[in-house]
Amino acid sequence: MGAAVAAVGLVTSITGTFLPWLKSGSTTRDSYEVLSLRDLAGLDGVAGGVVTSIWVGLTPLAMAAVALHVVRFPRIAACVGLLFGTISGTVALLATVQGDSKGALVGISIAGPVTTLAGAVLTIVGAITVLTSTRRSAVRTPGGNP
């Protein structure tokens, strides 16, 4: 059950990164388009490259978590899911806290960050469920030790 919740969370988070994160007049931009504006924000050096690499790397990280679960490494997949949820959830939480800037010419659009945050929470909850669940591979024999 935890793996299914984590999978839904991964898909929801990745979907949220493609929803609007920034609005400028009547134009909205998703999180990847916002990253392309980093040169204007003065993040064109090493810091900007690191931020971009980490954010763009979220989708392959989510795919790795799913692939690890498919090949029967659920606990490693859960750890990857925790990493994914922590990164995406932190960024989405920061953007969500800034809130919707109603009436402002440039502001944060709430749809993308909230969706990404909800997915990150589901991912973390599912991953913790997988990590704390008991293994059922031990066989008990009557009157003996497992």
From TrEMBL:
<feature type="transmembrane region" description="Helical">
    <location>
        <begin position="40"/>
        <end position="64"/>
    </location>
</feature>
<keyword id="KW-0812">Transmembrane</keyword>
<feature type="transmembrane region" description="Helical">
    <location>
        <begin position="76"/>
        <end position="97"/>
    </location>
</feature>
<feature type="transmembrane region" description="Helical">
    <location>
        <begin position="103"/>
        <end position="131"/>
    </location>
</feature>
<keyword id="KW-0472">Membrane</keyword>
<protein>
    <submittedName>
        <fullName>Uncharacterized protein</fullName>
    </submittedName>
</protein>
<keyword id="KW-1133">Transmembrane helix</keyword>
